[in-house]
Amino acid sequence: MKAAIITGLNQTPVYGDFAEPVADSGEELIAVTAAALTHLTKSRASGSHYSADRVFPAVVGVDGVGKTKDGRRVYFTLPAAPFGAMAEKTRVRSSHCIPIPDGLDDVTAAAIANPGMSCWAALVERARLQPGETVLVNGATGAAGRLAVQVAKHLGATKVIATGRDQDAVEKLTAFGADAVIPFHLDDSDPSSVTKYEHALQEQFSEGVDVVLDYLWGKSAETIMISAAKAGPEGRAIRFVQIGEMSNQKVELSGAAFRSSALVLMGSGINSVPFTALLAAIRGVFQAVNPAKLKIYTKAVPLSQVEKTWNADTGPDRVVFLPGK
Predict the structure, then answer these.
(1) Which of 18, 87, 195, 305 has the most CB atoms less than 10 A away?
(2) What is the pLDDT of residues 99-145, one digit of tens each?
(3) Among residues 272, 268, 277, which one has the least CA distance to residue 242?
């Protein structure tokens, strides 16, 4: 069968032939129709993610959409190594599959599952968001952060604040439900850039923020935590949920930031959230797509173009590979 294959760490997958999988007892043999290119897929393929299998040669791809042998259309996740989602066929535990609602097309389902799961699980399982609360999304201009703004609104947040490094992209988030936007450009050589960001954040925290979803980590997350300590209402708990590290930076934070605020720091992802809850989050997102009019930009690409697309800049589009093309 045709597949996207890697033979070692930090490689770009190549399109080639790979042995077809054979499903064991308790598994499904899936004819794959769509598989999205996500940060999780890329980091697992490079071996940098803590959940990476590091089995080679292997087919890349963490999750996707396809049909079972009996014709059911399903979303699947975590295929058994060395098989992955970016192939004409894969094998997956039956318990790792969920049905796709009628009216939700394969490309959208594949594209929205991972970013939708990350924010839904963070808000529902970790932060325990309550209707009427305020949510700040740090790093909201990417596909995941943009979806998080929409999901937070759908789950009952009355105010959503969006931050990001691209001013034009941040300002456009009002069309996705953001009530306030804070663009930032943090430069260690220009202390005023940090001060400006702190002041904008403190204004929001003084009015009350209940949940922070952080997709960036690094200096921006550090500034948020410091601003929360300086300006947050006394005793008001702020649940800070760490989801991604797109900044590739570390956080340097004194203990005073925690002692002087009711900041609760937690992570959300594989292992910190039960697997059954992650699947439930994806079901929730699938069911919300149409009633909540969730938007995600997609770009369908033949799997044969995986090598030239893997590291390409596709802007706001979530690339979805189509096996067999």
Answers:
(1) 87
(2) 999 999 999 999 999 999 999 999 999 999 999 999 999 999 988 99
(3) 268
